[in-house]
Amino acid sequence: MYSIKKALKKEKAKLNRNYFVSYFLMILILYLTYVAVNLNLVEGWKVYFTIFYAFIIEVILFINILKMYSESKFSIQVDLDKVKIYQPFKGTITFQTSKVVYVDVLSKKDSFDLVIFLKSKRAKRFIRLTKEDEMFKKAYDFLYQKYGEDEFCYYIVKNGGAKKYFYLYKLYKNCFEAEFSRKAMEYVKLFLQEYNLS
Question: What is 75-194's CATH number?
Answer without folding.
Answer: 2.30.29
